[in-house]
Design a protein that fits this description.
This protein is mainly alpha-helical and 106 residues long. It contains 6 helices and no strands.
Length: 106
């Protein structure tokens, strides 16, 4: 609830948008809400969980635009060995994440 309160009552950017421009205000509110949720929640997660959280936020934001891509990214895989280098992204990705990236790049 705090996010919504801050977004509606303390956001200077919202006050700069004309009250009659409802579509512009709605778009601004959606964008700001995703930023605020990520900033508040994402920083408190472990690296391995942060990746999944960001993917879920993107999935919610994009809706049905990229269903197949998100399904491939988030689904479980029976084979967790990847041909990608484990040093990708300075070794911050798990074997499972490397395998998912490999699957969607095909």
């Amino acid at each position: 609830m705090d996010i919504i309160h801050v977004l509606l009552n303390e956001n200077k950017g919202l006050k700069e948008i004309d009250f009659k421009k409802k579509e512009a205000r709605l778009k601004f509110l959606k964008d700001e809400m995703f930023k605020m949720v990520y900033e508040r929640v994402g920083n408190s997660l472990l690296n391995k969980d942060s990746f999944l959280f960001v993917m879920r936020l993107a999935q919610i934001k994009l809706g049905s635009v990229c269903v197949k891509e998100f399904t491939n990214l988030i689904k479980e895989s029976n084979i967790v060995e990847s041909r990608l280098s484990k040093s990708l992204l300075d070794g911050k990705l798990t074997s499972y994440q490397l395998k998912l990236i490999e699957e969607i790049s095909v």
